[in-house]
Amino acid sequence: MTDAPAKTMKDDPEDRHETRGRPVVMGVEERRKRVLDALDAIFARAGMAGLTMAAIAAEAGMSKRTLYTLFPDRAALFRAHLDRVRAAFVHPLGESDLGLPLAGRLRRLLEPDPRLPVSGLPRAVLRQAIAEADREPALARDCIERCFHADRALIRAELDRAVARAEATIPDTAAAAAMLQSMIQMPVLDLLLDPGFRPCPDAVRTRFELGLATFLGGIGAAV
């Protein structure tokens, strides 16, 4: 007797949805999207305590086995969530953007979108990463990279481009990138330590505009 074929992710009936009465197998990216949507939905209802792998799988409409195939643990889930949030707020420049002056490039790269929904989950993930940094240093380092260093590298690339084009004089573009990042973003400690600190879109916009204008004036670039 031959062995039955091993059950794969696409064979799992819990991971199918109906289209005109016929089951359609979801691709990996669709599954990942459903899991990350489930993460936001559960957090809104039950906070971090509700984010068990069993609850996330049930909310996403899939088996725990499939969930673990996509994300081996909660840390991997949180990393993917932070990547998703970052992609919504930071917009890497395309070829057509590179002809803009420095102010236009930085605005295109970093300008906040007031239409984006505000979620407390990224802050909760960062708080947990800080609290567990001694025990889970890899997650803490990943949070720093995803939330701060990756964006700073994009800013520095544009400042380096500005220096090469003689748009501005910047002796240390790495330090300048870190400075601009802190000037245009809401204060990190307030966001992390004060649960009641929820800046409105107007406050976020005002800080961005003032920070960018002050920075550009300081390096002698056109606003």
Automatic annotation (TrEMBL):
InterPro entries: Homeodomain-like_sf, HTH-type_TetR-like_transc_reg, HTH_TetR, Tet_transcr_reg_TetR-rel_C_sf, TetR_C_Proteobacteria. Residues 29-89 form the HTH tetR-type domain. This is TetR family transcriptional regulator. Residues 1-21 are annotated as: Disordered. Residues 8-21 have a biased composition (Basic and acidic residues). It comes from the Bacteria. Keywords: DNA-binding, Transcription, Transcription regulation. Residues 52-71 bind DNA. It comes from Palleronia aestuarii. One of its GO terms (molecular function) is transcription cis-regulatory region binding.
